[in-house]
């Protein structure tokens, strides 16, 4: 069959509308393979039939496509009639939830343990620092004690001035040879804010005060023991209360303690 | 229209996206065929849904080398629609109605598709010879084989072929103009 004969035979129309027997259909297929230019003819017949059919179609509800998708398993919904309890699944889920809760609990526990460990480490560090400080204080105290106990040092007690501070006292340990002195201020009351104790060395005739220095930070000093060097020739020690930074000359109205050195 | 073979192969491999595109391309034509057989919109919608579910379920049975994809779907749509008209429920509901064919659709339905050249096609059908109307109805919409159609119309097979070709050629001039 030539291409033209096939075109005019009317078989292509019947081929598209599906009206041929299986054998006739196969024959048309073979002829189409021989005359591929006739595919276009087939396509035109098909297009015209599709257009005719479409022109007869009422409006197509969009819902149809979604119910097709539902049917072919695109969207699965749980079957409603299946209400029997699935204990296996419930147990599984319960186990999973417990497991997750457990993991969270342990994570939480772990975190708080980590926090307390951190805290302990910090506390240990602080204690270690405190211990070191005490150790060094102790060493210092022992050093001072050994100095004071040595035969080169003399001790003078400075009693409180009856007019200003009758219960106050101070002790002076001094070494004339080395021109060193230690003042134990344990017996002095805490100075008011903005004031500071000043230590004076006195010679009597004529009365000449020379400032030895200040008892700084008395309230926080652990030993309340002050070291002074380059001690001048002295006949008496006095401690007065002075404005912060000290004064050029002693304020005698605020003389707390005074004690003479026995010759 | 060139057959979208690549799309068809993806659909046959189970790709729902391709199936969705094929639905967009062919659903109105198949709905028109089904409606012309069933003549009732709600039932036609059910039949169209069943048709596409069958198309999906049997997607592997179509062979690109053997026949047009449209013809394959057309057969499924026609058979599903005809099966429906043979069901008891359908027969009971349409007991008092005359048998109808596709030509009546233009007279009885308001909500027809306006996408295609409906007015042109209506004019085409209006001037269509009665023998063409009968041939198109039997071969395209009712799914008769050409032998059964020739027997039904009592005309020789050769005459049926040439007449059918002439009728569809006229349709082509309207559609492809």
User: Between the first and last Cα atoms of chain A, what is the distance in angstroms?
Assistant: 155 Å
Proportion in helices of chain A: 40-55%
How big a fraction of the residues of chain A is strand? 15-25%
How large is the radius of gyration of chain A? 56 Å
Structural class determined from secondary elements of chain B:
mainly alpha
CATH fold node name of the largest domain in chain A: Immunoglobulin-like
Helix content of chain B: over 70%
First and last CA, distance of chain B: 14 Å
Order of helices and strands of chain B: HHHHHHHHHH
What composes the largest sheet of chain A?
4 strands, antiparallel
What is the compact description of this entry?
Chain A contains six helices and eight strands; from the N terminus they run ααααααββββββββ. Chain A has 263 residues and is α+β, with helices and mostly antiparallel strands.
How does this model look, in words?
The complex is a heterodimer of chains A (263) and B (177). In chain A, 44% of the residues lie in helices and 20% in strands. Chain A is an alpha+beta fold and 263 residues long. Chain A has three domains: 3-70; 90-147; 154-260, Immunoglobulin-like. Mean pLDDT of chain A is 86; it is low at 75-80. With 177 residues, chain B is mostly helical. In chain B, helix 3 (41-57) packs across helix 4. Chain B has two domains: 1-97, RNA polymerase sigma factor, region 2, helix turn helix motif (Rna Polymerase Sigma Factor, Chain: A, Orthogonal Bundle); 99-177, Arc Repressor Mutant, subunit A (Orthogonal Bundle). At the A-B interface, helix 2, helix 3, helix 4 and helix 5 of A face helix 2, helix 3, helix 4, helix 6 and helix 7 of B.
Strand-helix topology:
The complex is a heterodimer of chains A (263) and B (177).
Chain A: H1 3-9, H2 11-16, H3 22-34, H4 39-55, H5 63-71, H6 87-149, E1 154-159, E2 169-175, E3 180-184, E4 195-203, E5 208-215, E6 225-228, E7 236-243, E8 255-260
Antiparallel strand pairs in A: 1-2, 2-3, 3-6, 4-5, 4-7, 7-8
Chain B: H1 5-12, H2 16-38, H3 41-57, H4 69-86, H5 88-93, H6 102-108, H7 118-126, H8 130-141, H9 146-153, H10 157-175
Helix pairs in contact in B: 1-2, 2-3, 2-4, 2-6, 3-4, 8-10
